[in-house]
Amino acid sequence: MAEIHPKLRQDCQVVGHFTLCHVLLMQDASYPWLILVPDRDGVSEIHQLSEQDQVQLLRESSCLANMLSDDFSADKINIAALGNIVPQLHVHHVARYKNDPAWPKPIWGYAMAVPYEAEVQRKLLDKLRDMLKGQQGFF
Fold this sequence. Notes:
Oligomer: single chain
Strand content: 15-25%
Number of helices: 3
Number of strands: 5
Helix content: 25-40%
CATH architecture: 2-Layer Sandwich
CATH superfamily: HIT-like
CATH class: Alpha Beta
Structural class: alpha+beta
Distance between the termini: 15 Å
Order of helices and strands: HEEEHEEH
């Protein structure tokens, strides 16, 4: 099992795991923001994954995007694999709203993260786990 980069561990909470990817919740209450981290050592780019893993990443990414769009009534889902700060491959999935703090600009560098209150974060993690529980390969 691949180690999750220390920066991601610092900034996120583990929601669970799909067949390929760890699912993380970014600790920023400004947006519903999930991150997929493929459980593969030494991978920094999508094209470095095997073809089978690339297909699986797309399946898992689509599952998260659908969930964020439907269950969080997002106006837009931003999906990005930047890796400029954290070299480990990770794919951001951010539910965006026309009235969110950064709309329509990108969220990166816009404002400081707003930490979740402990109880709000616990309830959100429970909600996310319940929503993902029925998805193929999620545990």
